[in-house]
Amino acid sequence: MSDADLEEIRKGRLAQLQQQQQSGAGGGSGAGGQDEQRKQQEAEARASILSQILHPEAADRLGRIRIVKESRATDVENRLIMLARSGQLRAKVTEEQLKELLGAVAENSERDGSAGGKIVVSRRKGGWDDDDDLLDL
């Protein structure tokens, strides 16, 4: 993705925000409607950026990941968008590159302890043991 593409996206988004501010200042529409509209536009902008920086196979894989674990998919999307905005992506992200990024995100979440899938079993020491009953006979 080139810098010109990103600049075009930024200009379009800026024009949308200015138009919203002008229409919002003139009309007294509810805040709930504006929030929903803003969220929808942000989702559309994210989808637009992702479609420009991901190969179809990579976008497919990210969609499947979203079905299984939405938080992980959102983390990966955020990282991809950040890389695209900072100009660190020179070409579209392939499926293999997406796998590497997924591994990095997984390592970060495990390191932070926010994996969520970890199960801890605590057992009582000493306590009640059925084998002790047999010794009394």
Please give a quick description of this structure.
With 137 residues, this protein is mostly helical. It has helices at residues 3-26, 31-53, 56-68, 70-85, 95-112, 131-135.
Overall mean confidence score, pLDDT: 81
Instruction: Please state the overall shape, judged from the principal axes of the Cα atoms.
Output: elongated
Structural class: mainly alpha
Number of helices: 6
List the uncertain runs: none
* Series of H and E elements: HHHHHH
Q: Tell me about the biggest sheet?
A: none
Helix content: over 70%
Short descriptors:
137 residues, mainly alpha, elongated
How would you explain this protein's 3D organization?
- It contains 6 helices and no strands.
- The chain is elongated and about 85 Å long.
- With 137 residues, the protein is mainly alpha-helical.
- Helices cover 72% and strands 0% of the residues.
- It has helices at 3-26, 31-53, 56-68, 70-85, 95-112, 131-135.
- Helix 2 (31-53) crosses helix 4 and helix 3 runs parallel beside helix 5 (95-112).
Explain the layout of strands and helices:
Blueprint: H1 3-26, H2 31-53, H3 56-68, H4 70-85, H5 95-112, H6 131-135
Helix pairs in contact: 2-4, 3-4, 3-5
